[in-house]
Amino acid sequence: MTPAEPWTGRDDGPGTGPRWHQIVTIGEDARSGAVLIGFRSDEGVRRNQGRPGAVDGPAALRMALAPLAVPPDLTVTDLGDVMVDSDLEAGQQHLGQHAGPVLAAGRPVVVLGGGHEVARASYYALRAGERLADNRLGILNLDAHFDLRSADQATSGTPFLQIAEDEQRAGRRLDYLVLGIARSANTSDLFETADRIGAEYRFDLDCQEADATAVRGQVASFLDRVDVVHLTIDLDCLPASVAPGVSAPAGLGIPLPVVLAVVSQVARSGRLALLDIAELNPRFDQDARTARTGARIIHEVLTAWDRTEGER
Ligand SMILES: N=CN[C@@H](CCC(=O)O)C(=O)O
Ligand SMILES: [Mn+2]
Ligand SMILES: [Mn+2]
């Protein structure tokens, strides 16, 4: 683990209400409230023939979060970063070991990626935190891609097939819902794999603003049939104009208001255990647009999560 750097940002003086950089505890755990942990990894994207740069995602997300205004009752601890080298599998296990105890304590956890291989690291954390025993895991992925590739090693394109197989070995069945699938960005074998593992998906064309009520209904059915939710946001689920800083920008994408409505719905459900944000690549970002969008998503989730925990 690498400790987090001190957070800095604008200070409007006494009585003005806090910003994120003023409330985040670093170095020492606040022992309650939400927890951030970074997953500095490029290895999954590199193995998946993508554009490297996701290793700097956690720092860019922190920088974008720092100036945002927070509600007075939000408590956040930044545990720092897990550094990932060419041994991606060890890095994924590492994150699981570090985040497991806070998940075991029932605290909201936000993992800052890293390529989408971060999702399997998050899964290890849920397992280490004993959130899966006797519970039905639901993964809600907002993504233009299935990430159900079959490969001889982990990449940013394999995590959800690996997790489905992990859950099968444990005698459980993963409930996997993907919103924002681009038909043109997924080959036919991926659709076949999705069908084989019983995944549910919704195309990007059916996740536009006019579809918001139907999207909400599909998410509500998903929430009803699972016990523990892992919410994973691949920033390439958004239009390239909103999220240019990713390895594989989307041609269409889900509009940001629809994404924010979905993540708030999940955060309010009382079933959310962990959020991860994947694929932010600051090298290709423009004016920190993608980082700011990722930060807004985290802000929205933690605001709803902290205030309504346990509510359905
Ligand atoms: N994280 C995964 N990403 C996509 C990458 C697609 C691309 O580079 O075009 C995938 O493997 O399908
Ligand atoms: Mn993607
Ligand atoms: Mn992905």
TrEMBL record:
Entry binding sites for Mn(2+) 1: 116, 143, 145, 147, 234, 236
Annotated InterPro entries: HutG, Ureohydrolase, Ureohydrolase_dom_sf, Ureohydrolase_Mn_BS
Alphabetical UniProt keywords: Histidine metabolism, Hydrolase, Manganese, Metal-binding
Cofactor note: Binds 2 manganese ions per subunit.
This enzyme's EC code(s): 3.5.3.8
Pathway annotation: Amino-acid degradation; L-histidine degradation into L-glutamate; L-glutamate from N-formimidoyl-L-glutamate (hydrolase route): step 1/1
Protein's UniProt name: Formimidoylglutamase
Organism field: Enemella evansiae
